[in-house]
Amino acid sequence: MIITSVRVEGFKNLGKIHLKPNEKYNIIIGKNAQGKTNLLEAMWILTGCKSFRGSKEKDFIAHNGRSMRVKLKFRDSVRTQKIEYDLVKSQNGRSIFLNEVKVKGTGSLFDVFKCIVFTPDDVDIIKGSPEKRRSFIDMAFAQLYPSALTHINKHNLLLNQRNAVLKNVISLKSMRNELEIWDKQLSAEGAYVSFMRYDYVKKLSEICAGLYSKITGGNEALELVYRSNVFSEDTLKEGFNPSASEIYYKKLSENIDYDLKFGYTHTGVSRDEIIIRINGFNAKEFGSQGQIKSAALVIKLAQAEIYSKQSKEAPVVFLDDVMGELDENRQKLVFDIIKNMQVFITTCNESALLPEIKGKIFRICDGNAAEEDDYVSSSGE
């Protein structure tokens, strides 16, 4: 997958920008707060995923602006495609066009344009809440199998409905037996998500183990373990089967009294945990800052490797202000994994990059980007 043209206007602090990226490396250089990350974020929202910075849609338009527009042209293995995302402050909603046909919602883009982004905030996969880890696993798996997104979203909707019924039962607005309607449906979707997560975490852990050993010279070991709130390890190893929904339903039924006491669901995939261990110890609790950064980098690299091996299309890679913090060996590992992908790199200092990284260079200042000659390293290579 190769981006061939980018047009951005009015996204946050960005003015009118038109770029024709290099098929390999694109280095976006500028001081802090000039718009480097905003440019990546503008392209990222065309994946159909939420902003990797947690921005809400209303914040896409500058405070004193009236509208924003992002247009992208990219080439996959079959054809050239176009995506346009328009948002006007004075109007409700947004307009999204895929190949000049208006589509409903960002979900239509999820199976079309694929990116993987590396940011300094990736350490939250390890240091953050269990929800951060669950969300990462769900998104990574759904990028590979877009139909999984339907199950994830349906589960979340059903869970919200069940919690609403719990509150109604407590306030005597609903009967207790109404929960059975939601529990049957929730069990089917929750069981699917459980086994989906288990399979992906197992695959991710295998690749992470090799990469982390390489990055630490074989001195440390990284492991990811999926802990289901419903299923035992032995049950998960057996693989998904029709009885999984029955096990999930039984678990929900056993905890109804507890749920009614507090007014929300305590059982299910919304309570799962992904444990990340370094040398057998929980990295969140015992990992050093350096170990956590290395582990987060390796996890995202493993995500990229899984995607490139299993998908027909290599994803576009965004490296947002992460390369400058990596030593030469870690940079080489990164570029070895993503060597067959189109890459966008933001940095304040291009001299911090490996000399062999050549491509187009764009300097960004006050929200405007200017293309320079092909990037040539300071070593003259």
Structure commentary:
- The protein has 381 residues and is an alpha/beta fold.
- The chain has 11 helices and 15 strands.
- The protein has helices at 36-44, 124-127, 130-144, 147-170, 179-215, 233-238, 243-254, 256-262, 283-286, 289-310, 328-337, and strands at 2-9, 16-19, 25-29, 67-75, 80-88, 94-98, 101-103, 115-118, 222-227, 273-278, 281-282, 316-320, 343-347, 360-365, 368-371.
- The protein is globular and about 65 Å long.
- Residues 374-381 have low confidence and may be disordered.
Pick out its properties.
381 residues, six-stranded antiparallel β-sheet, six-stranded mixed β-sheet, disordered C terminus
Class of secondary structure makeup: alpha/beta
Low-confidence stretches: 374-381
Indicate the mean pLDDT: 88
Radius of gyration: 23 Å
Helix coverage percent: 25-40%
Discrete helix count: 11
Q: Give the tally of β-strands.
A: 15
The coarse silhouette is globular
Strand numbers in spatial order across the main sheet: 2-1-4-5-6-7
Largest sheet features: 6 strands, antiparallel
Between the first and last Cα atoms, what is the distance in angstroms? 27 Å
Pattern of helices and strands = EEEHEEEEEHHHHEHHHEEHHEHEEE
Strand proportion: 15-25%
What order do the helices and strands come in, and which of them pair?
Blueprint: E1 2-9, E2 16-19, E3 25-29, H1 36-44, E4 67-75, E5 80-88, E6 94-98, E7 101-103, E8 115-118, H2 124-127, H3 130-144, H4 147-170, H5 179-215, E9 222-227, H6 233-238, H7 243-254, H8 256-262, E10 273-278, E11 281-282, H9 283-286, H10 289-310, E12 316-320, H11 328-337, E13 343-347, E14 360-365, E15 368-371
Parallel strand pairs: 3-13, 3-14, 8-12, 12-13
Antiparallel strand pairs: 1-2, 1-4, 4-5, 5-6, 6-7, 9-10, 10-11, 14-15
Helix pairs in contact: 3-4, 3-5, 4-5, 5-7, 5-10
